[in-house]
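Troubleshooting: if your tokenizer reports a length mismatch, compare your output against this known-good record of 255 residues.
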Amino acid sequence: MMADKTINSKRIKWTELVVFYLISVLVSAPFRLQLIRLDEIIPLPYGLSVFYRVLRGIGPAIGFFAVYYILKSSVERKFTFWGVNKLYSVLAVAIIPLFLGIAGLNNQEGLNQHYYGFITGIFMILYALGEEYGWRGYLQQALEPLKFPYRILLIALLWYVWHLSFLLPGFSMQSQLIFFAFLVLGSWGLLKITESSFSILFAAAVHIAFNILTDSHITGNRKIIVLILAATVWTILMISLSKNKVKTIENQLSI
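Known-good structure output:
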């Protein structure tokens, strides 16, 4: 009985996890640290250079595909792209470019703010998917043998280090601590969301809320309105998913 109360780390494939994490960090690092600036090397018209930012988040997705398709990981894949309800996952993520398009975003290229808001929303979806395929698609499940609090803290710590924000200028110790606290909250919230929706796409949608909070192109009032509207839609969808799950269980018990 005592052994059951300790952290069960024996089943965690640490070597595989290290490979995943190194790929995640090393692939994203040149773009996160702005060592490679494709927007300056190959600028795109109509504000489309914003899509180069997707490369900052691509590392975890590359790590995901490496461990599952090259290393043939035995870590159970509980989550799929669409999850248990394809329509809900699409709605959850579609509201981001829609709301940002309506709100509009400031830009230095003189582009229509509503157009720029819409394409930025699309970029945010792709960026968040790059991260979520790794953090929720693999890491969250690879660390499942750990007790819940330890798993959340370790995911948040690995997520924090991956961002490499401590290597960038202009970040105080206070801002780093606040950022880490947000990642702990995000690790907990996104774990709960994936366990209900079983959807990487749904998790990516909610992940974008954190990106919107830190996006300097979105002014205060617009940022708050977009986040409130998005959170309202996500809450409605999650409540509906929970109700459907309860009904499914009741139907199975009645058979």
